[in-house]
Amino acid sequence: MPPTPTTPPPDAVIPERHPQAPAPGTRLGSHYEHCFGCGPQHPGGLRIDAVAGEGLDVTAELTVRDVHQGGPGLAHGGLLTTAMDETLGTLNWLLHAPAVTGRLETDFLSPVPVDSVLHLRAWITGVHGRKIYSAAEARIGGPDGPVAVRAQALFVQVKLEHFTTHGRPEDIEKVLDDPDLMKRARAFEVNP
Ligand SMILES: CCCCCCCC/C=C\CCCCCCCC(=O)SCCNC(=O)CCNC(=O)[C@H](O)C(C)(C)COP(=O)(O)OP(=O)(O)OC[C@H]1O[C@@H](n2cnc3c(N)ncnc32)[C@H](O)[C@@H]1OP(=O)(O)O
């Protein structure tokens, strides 16, 4: 594939896992219960619950449901992009640095029928300053099934203030009032 803004530059580094990164095999859970990608409280959400890998990688599963349709009986492409975005976003846990998607490129290789189980995998391909480069794939039917969706991304590290400054005030207040969620959010800080 030709280089794009999501291809790490030659002087990008592959960092170590953060010393407090969740151990391999740990379920990463949800960073926010109302998140469309991972929140258990979201009625139509994807409920992605990724598992930390041995290195700078994660895996996750997604069962495509009726509410995820685009074409009749088929997953919506934007929905699949969201699944890639969310899975890539969980890589934050391994670096302990909050980062948001700057650019996300998605290739759709085959249609994904409703009721399919997608096996997602995401991994870091390089870090350059605040820029975190990563890639992901979704295989259909099993971890070794054919690749249905592929993605490359550039995430940019931000401070927690990114969320407190820009989020709708009443939602931020609810988060600030929830000690468990704040504890989880602080775990993201690079220098708490
Ligand atoms: C107390 C409450 C806490 C509650 C929270 C709980 C904890 C939650 C923790 C973690 C949540 C994780 C959630 C994951 C969910 C899935 C991920 C998403 O969907 S995230 C949403 C979609 N994304 C956005 O909304 C970004 C919107 N964009 C921005 O905010 C800015 O544009 C931002 C931060 C991306 C960059 O802005 P700048 O001002 O900070 O930095 P600049 O200088 O512009 O960029 C830095 C470098 O990145 C490159 N860059 C930025 N955007 C790029 C782009 N689109 N393409 C190529 N390069 C780009 C630039 O060229 C620059 O590169 P050079 O350092 O100069 O080499």
Automatic annotation (TrEMBL):
InterPro entries, sorted: HotDog_dom_sf, THEM4/THEM5_acyl-CoA_thioest, Thioestr_dom
Gene Ontology CC terms, in alphabetical order: cytoplasm; membrane
Record field: compositional bias (Pro residues): 1-12
Gene Ontology biological-process entries: fatty acid metabolic process
Protein name: Acyl-coenzyme A thioesterase THEM4
Annotated Gene3D superfamilies: Hotdog Thioesterase
GO MF, one example: hydrolase activity
Topological type in the membrane: Peripheral membrane protein
Organism superkingdom: Bacteria
Annotated compartments: Cell projection, Ruffle membrane; Cytoplasm; Membrane
